[in-house]
Amino acid sequence: MLKWAIFGSTGLLGFSLVSQLIKIEQEVYGVSSKPAENFICQNHVFNAANIADVREFFKKIQPKIVVNCIALTDLSLAEKDKDLAYELNITIAKNLATVCMENNSKFVHISTDSVFDGKKGDYSEEDSTNPLNYYAQTKLESEQEVKKILPNYLILRTNMYGLNYRNKSSLLEWFYENLKKGQSITGFTDVFFNPLSTKNISKAIIELVEKNVEGLYHLSSFEKISKYEFGITTANVFGLNKELIKEGRIDDLNLFPKRPKDTSLNNDKISKILNVPLLNSKESITKIKEDFK
User: Fold this and answer.
1) pTM confidence score
2) Are the C-beta atoms of residues 176 and 241 closer than 8 Å to each other?
């Protein structure tokens, strides 16, 4: 049995990963910056930007597998508070990689499809990166720092949706909550991605670790879909009124910071390794509907 430490355990992916590890009876410990009452595993609360606290945690728990799910993903906040974005997206990644190196622990770092400028889509691991905003810039720099420190890293670029443990909304939850209230919303027809559910990503991470896979990989579904189409799929699966979703174009809005339009990832490299099926949005949202119940 492996001993896992999930940093960002109460976040969108972290909570899903902890849940999956408990299901397969792995020894798992969570780490979050805020307390989580009655959490599903032993959860440690401290700021991983303090490397002394990270070292103390390692000394006490001695995890063999460390997964970094911590990130500041709010694009506007990242632009306004660059120090915070740097701390959460870069400093913590450096600290975890450093202490994993000192303790011979496996490190899994979660990155993003936003490291690309979105001009072409279907990006492979060999394609040139070109982040358009500070969030994406910090995530790319975090990858580079991890590579400098560790020889046996696993970096996964992905885009995710699922159910939040805390009171936040993923894209799926945003569509669901607004449609449930009967509110009219806009879905972009000119923004494309190929996301995976957090449950799907969690199962893939577990298999990759069990197979001791190393390197940089794109983890995505085979389905390239627009944000509008994703909303329509959500409405159809939950039996909600899809007519409430209006077609919109990001090109018609003067959004700040800039956002890439097509960050779809090519998953040929990882799909040759994984036995876990990479589900499309309809398949995954249908499974998530059962979790809603």
Assistant:
1) 0.96
2) no
Residue pair 245/231 in contact (Cβ under 8 Å)? The answer is yes
Task: Please list the helix, strand and coil fractions of the chain in percent, rounded to the nearest 5, in that order.
Answer: 45, 20, 40
> Where do the structural domains in the chain lie, given as residue ranges?
3-168+195-223+263-279
Give CA angle at 218 (216, 224), nearest 5°. Answer: 165
Q: What residues contact residue 222 under an 8 Å CB cut-off, 6+ apart?
A: 194, 267, 271, 278, 280
Q: Residue 59, exposed/middle/buried by CB under 10 A (0-12, 13-18, 19+)?
A: exposed
* Concatenated DSSP letters of 38-90: T-SSEEEE--TTSHHHHHHHHHHH--SEEEE------HHHHHH-HHHHHIIII
Which class does domain 3-168+195-223+263-279 fall in?
A: alpha beta
pLDDT in tens, the chain (293 residues): 889 999 999 999 999 999 999 999 999 999 999 999 889 999 999 999 999 999 999 999 999 999 999 999 999 999 999 999 999 999 999 999 999 999 999 999 999 999 999 999 999 999 999 999 999 999 999 999 999 999 999 999 999 999 988 877 899 999 999 999 999 999 999 999 999 999 999 999 999 999 999 999 999 999 999 999 999 999 999 999 999 999 999 999 888 999 999 999 999 999 999 999 999 999 999 999 987 76
Cα dihedral 8, 10, 14, 18 in deg (nearest 10): 120
Write the single-letter amino acid at 85.
A
CA count, 13 A, side-chain hemisphere, 158: 26
